[in-house]
Please model this.
Amino acid sequence: MAKYLAQIIVMGAQVVGRAFARALQQEFAASQAAAQARGRAGQHSAAASSITGMSLQEAQQILNISTLTPEDIQKNYDHLFKVNDKTVGGSFYIQSKVVRAKERLDEEMNIQTEPPSPKSQQNTET
Model:
């Protein structure tokens, strides 16, 4: 009886071990693919951050945007630009930050929608 119980425990441990190893391999492969995709987009995004002088997160905070949709960006931009107009007692500094934030988010949307260049595809195939 103890012998059968020990065999069941060992077989169960082997099944769980194989399943865990397979899940770990799949997670590692998915992580590698995400890192490669992030690397390509990340290089463009870093360049855009240095050009505009503003990070993506900062631009999203300024325009109060959680997802990058053109409608939300434009709506929030229009509202904040009007509210901070000097003629109505607003701040030129804040208005310029709003403009820079919109430029940064527009650049990020261009990066996300542009197809990968042939040069980056060749690097991933080799």
